[in-house]
Automatic annotation (TrEMBL):
Protein name: Protein kinase domain-containing protein
Pfam family, any one: Glyco_hydro_31_3rd
UniProt-listed PANTHER family: GLYCOSIDASE FAMILY 31, MYOGENESIS-REGULATING GLYCOSIDASE
Species of the source: Soboliphyme baturini
UniProt keyword terms in alphabetical order: Glycosidase, Hydrolase
Length: 530
C-alpha cells in the first residue's frame, strides 16, 4: 500500500458492533501523522474506527469504538496476509502465510483479556520457530480492560490478576488502558486511582510504553466526559487530561490534584456542558516533576492531540491555582492572578482550551463583590479586562443579566461581538464539523502544522482554529509590538483590513485598548457564515 514505516493509518466504517460481536468489513485508508489515534467520540457516526502503525512487515493496531463500549481487540496482521470478510460471525478472519486455512481471530470484548491471549496462542500454533513469532506477531498494540472503580477511586483487585496473567504468559503489549463508565454526580478520587495504577506499573514493568486509565462519565443525555490519566515514567507520577468532546481542557498532575466532574449547566439543552472542580493544595509546588519532564510526558503520551497542553502543563508545574465556581445560568471563572507574564499567557491558554469543550462558555466576572477583584490594583484589573476581551471570540457567549450591565463588559461586548459573529464563528462551525467527521482537533497551537515545531514553540499565545483562522492574545497594554508567525498563504486582519504574506514572522502593533488579534486566510474571508 505504500505506507512508510511508523506512519499512522486508520480504519473507517469497517466494523459493525452490536451488544455481543463485531464484524470486519474491510477498508483501510491513509491519514496524516497528526490524526488523533485514541478514542474519538464522533456524534451521529455509528460503528468503529481503528488505528495502526507499521512495524517492519506488520501493522499493529487496535479497533476503537466511536463511543466507548466494551468491544475492542488488539491485532497484528502481516502486510502480505489478505483480509477475509465474514459478515455472519463475530470473527476477524485473515489468511496465514503458513497454511492454506483462514485463521479465525475473535473480535473480543475488552473485559475478556483471555480472548486476546487465546488468539495469540492460536496464531503461535501455526508458526514453526521463535523467529517466526517475533516476525509475524511482534507486539499486541493495545489492551483495553473494563474495570470497577468504587466511590473512593479504588480499582478492582482483578486488575492485578490480569496483569499477573499477562506477565506469566509473556504477552507483550505496547499500552494498556482501563475503562470505567460512571454516573454523572459520582465523585472520583483520581489521586487514589493514580496510586493504584502507579503501583501496578511498578510491579509489572513489562508494559513497554503507556499505562493509563480512562474514566467516562455519562451525563443525562448520554454524552460523555472523558477523564484521561497516563502514568509517566518519572517515579510513578501521573499526568492526566480532562477531555470533553475530544478537546483536552486541562492537563493535570494527579499526584497532587484531585478531579471531580459535574454537570455545569442544567438550563441549556445542548449537550455536553461540564466543568472540572479543582480541589487543589494551597502552597508549595503543584508538581514534583521538573518542567522538562512534564512537557516530555505530555508531548509523548498525549500524541500532540491536546489543545494548549504545553502552556497548561507548564502552568500547573509552576503551581498555578485555579478555582471554579458554578452557576445555573453561566459559569464564572475565578482566577488567582499570577504575577509573571509567563503565567498570564498560560492562563490565557487554559481559558482557550477550556472554552473549546463544545458550546459552553467561561465568563470572567468583573463585579466588585468578587473578593479577588476587590483586592486588585488597577493593573491587575486591566489584565482581567484583557481576559474578558479574549472571551468575546469564544464559541458561545452566555452571560447573566447581572454583569451584562457592567460598563466595561458592555463596551468590550459592543466592540468584539460583531467581529466574532462575522469572522470567528463561521470558522468555529466549520472546525467543529471537521472534528465530528474526521476527529481533527478544533484548536491547535500555531506550530501544529510546522515542519520544524521547535522553532515555533515560543509562540504559545497563538492558536489555529480549523485551518483558516488564527487567534492571538496579548495581555500587557505597555507591550504594543508583538511577533506573530503566519503559516504560508495570505492572511487578513479583519480589524485593520491589512493583508500579510504568510510563511514568515511578522510584527503586529497592538493598540492600548484591545488585545486580541484575529487573522483570517484571505481566500476564506466572507460576509456570510459557512
Amino acid at each position: 500500500m505504500g505506507i512508510s514505516d511508523l506512519e499512522r493509518v486508520k480504519f473507517v466504517n469497517c466494523l459493525h458492533v452490536d451488544n455481543s460481536s463485531g464484524y470486519w468489513f474491510g477498508g483501510i485508508i491513509r491519514t496524516d501523522e497528526n490524526w488523533p489515534i485514541r478514542f474519538r467520540h464522533i456524534p451521529y457516526h455509528m460503528g468503529l474506527t481503528g488505528s495502526a502503525r507499521w512495524h517492519g512487515d506488520s501493522v499493529i493496531g487496535i479497533f476503537e469504538p466511536s463511543w466507548f463500549s466494551s468491544h475492542s481487540a488488539a491485532i497484528s496482521i502481516s502486510r502480505k496476509i489478505p483480509f477475509y470478510t465474514n459478515q455472519t460471525t463475530n470473527k476477524l478472519c485473515f489468511k496465514s502465510d503458513k497454511t492454506a486455512n483462514y485463521l479465525m481471530y475473535k473480535v473480543c470484548r475488552a473485559r475478556d483479556v483471555v480472548d486476546i491471549i487465546r488468539s495469540r496462542e492460536q496464531y503461535l500454533q501455526t508458526t514453526s520457530s521463535a523467529d517466526d513469532i517475533e516476525k509475524e506477531f511482534p507486539t499486541i498494540g493495545s489492551v483495553i480492560i473494563d474495570i470497577d472503580i468504587d466511590s473512593q477511586g479504588n480499582l478492582s483487585h482483578n486488575l492485578m490478576k490480569v496483569c499477573q496473567t499477562m506477565r506469566n504468559l509473556r504477552l507483550p503489549i505496547k499500552a494498556m488502558y482501563l475503562i470505567k463508565e460512571v454516573d454523572l454526580f459520582q465523585k472520583l478520587d483520581m489521586n487514589a486511582i493514580s496510586r493504584t495504577i502507579a503501583a501496578c506499573r511498578t510491579n509489572h514493568t513489562f508494559f513497554a510504553a503507556e499505562f493509563g486509565c480512562y474514566v467516562r462519565i455519562r451525563d443525562v443525555e448520554n454524552e460523555f466526559i472523558d477523564v484521561t490519566m497516563l502514568v509517566s515514567q518519572h517515579n510513578g507520577s501521573s499526568i492526566g487530561a480532562v477531555q470533553v468532546r475530544n478537546e483536552t481542557c486541562f492537563v493535570l498532575d494527579f499526584t497532587k490534584w484531585k478531579v471531580r466532574c459535574w454537570y455545569a449547566d442544567q438550563v441549556c439543552k445542548n449537550p455536553l456542558y461540564a466543568l472540572v472542580d479543582y480541589v487543589a493544595f494551597y502552597g508549595g509546588s503543584a508538581s514534583s516533576l521538573p518542567v522538562e519532564s512534564t512537557l516530555n510526558v505530555t508531548l509523548g503520551n498525549l500524541n500532540l492531540y491536546s489543545t494548549a497542553y504545553v502552556d497548561v502543563a507548564w502552568s500547573i508545574a509552576k503551581g498555578l491555582i485555579v478555582d471554579v465556581a458554578y452557576g445555573t445560568q453561566t459559569v464564572p471563572l475565578f482566577i488567582n492572578i499570577p504575577t509573571t507574564l509567563e503565567h498570564e499567557r498560560n492562563v490565557i491558554a487554559m481559558l482557550l482550551a477550556a472554552s473549546l469543550q463544545g458550546y459552553n462558555m467561561f465568563v470572567i466576572q468583573l463585579d466588585s463583590n468578587i473578593p479577588e477583584y476587590a483586592s486588585m490594583d488597577e493593573q491587575q484589573r486591566n489584565r482581567l479586562r484583557s481576559w474578558l476581551q479574549l472571551a468575546m471570540v469564544m464559541p458561545m457567549l452566555r452571560v447573566p443579566a447581572s454583569i451584562i450591565h457592567n460598563p466595561i463588559f458592555y463596551e468590550n461586548l459592543n466592540y468584539y461581538k460583531p467581529i466574532r459573529d462575522k469572522y470567528v464563528l463561521p470558522h468555529y462551525h466549520k472546525a467543529y464539523l471537521q472534528n465530528r467527521l474526521f476527529g481533527d482537533p478544533v484548536m491547535r497551537p500555531i506550530w501544529w502544522f510546522a515542519k520544524d515545531r521547535s522553532s515555533l514553540l515560543t509562540y504559545n499565545h497563538q492558536f489555529m482554529i480549523g485551518n483558516d483562522l488564527i487567534v492571538a492574545a496579548f495581555l500587557h497594554s505597555n507591550e504594543v509590538n508583538y511577533r506573530l508567525y503566519l503559516p504560508p498563504g495570505k492572511w487578513i486582519n479583519p480589524d485593520t483590513n491589512v493583508t500579510n504574506d504568510g510563511g514568515t514572522v511578522i510584527t503586529v502593533h497592538i493598540g492600548m485598548k484591545y488585545n486580541v488579534v484575529c487573522f483570517i486566510r484571505a481566500e476564506k474571508l466572507t460576509d456570510k457564515p459557512f
